[in-house]
Design goal:
Blueprint lengths: L7 E7 L4 H5 L1 H10 L5 E7 L6 H10 L5 E3 L3 H7 L7 E5 L5 E6 L5 H13 L1
Parallel strand pairs: 1-2, 2-3
Antiparallel strand pairs: 1-4, 4-5
Helix pairs in contact: 2-5
C-alpha cells in the first residue's frame, strides 16, 4: 500500500458469500467514479479462504465491480484490520492513519463516506 500514500484510502473487506457486501457494490462503484481523478483510492480486500484468481475474475465481471480487488494473505489482513465482521470499511487518511471504521451494511453508506472523504481531502 506504499503507492497510496498522500491519498485517502478506503479498504472494503469483502467476501463473495456476504450478502450485505454484495449489496454495497453499486454504492462503492459510484464512489469510485466520483473520486476517480482525486487523491482517493478505493479497494476491495477479498477475505474468502482459498479463492482462485479465476473465481474472483468471474465474480468481478458478473457483479460489474469497478474497484480494484486485492487478494492479500487473508489471515494477516483480517488480523491487522480486525475484519472479523463483514462488510467492514476502513478509511485511512493521507498520513496513513485509520480515521474511521464502518462495520455492517447501512442505507446511508454513500452519504456517510462522501461526507468523510470530502472532509479528508479538503
Amino acid at each position: 500500500i506504499l503507492q497510496v500514500k498522500k491519498n485517502v484510502v478506503v479498504l472494503n473487506f469483502f467476501s463473495m458469500a456476504c450478502i450485505p457486501c454484495i449489496k454495497e457494490i453499486p454504492t462503492y462503484n459510484k464512489l469510485a467514479v466520483k473520486y476517480k481523478n482525486l487523491p482517493v483510492k478505493l479497494f476491495y480486500v477479498n477475505v474468502d479462504a482459498e479463492v482462485t484468481d479465476l473465481k474472483i475474475k468471474r465474480f468481478i465481471v458478473r457483479k460489474q465491480i469497478k474497484v480494484s480487488m486485492m487478494l492479500p494473505n487473508q489471515r494477516e489482513a483480517m488480523r491487522k484490520y480486525q475484519a472479523y465482521a463483514l462488510p467492514r470499511l476502513v478509511v485511512i487518511n493521507s498520513e496513513g492513519r485509520i480515521v474511521e471504521i464502518i462495520t455492517g451494511f447501512n442505507d446511508y453508506l454513500e452519504a456517510e463516506l462522501i461526507t468523510l472523504i470530502d472532509k479528508l481531502i479538503g
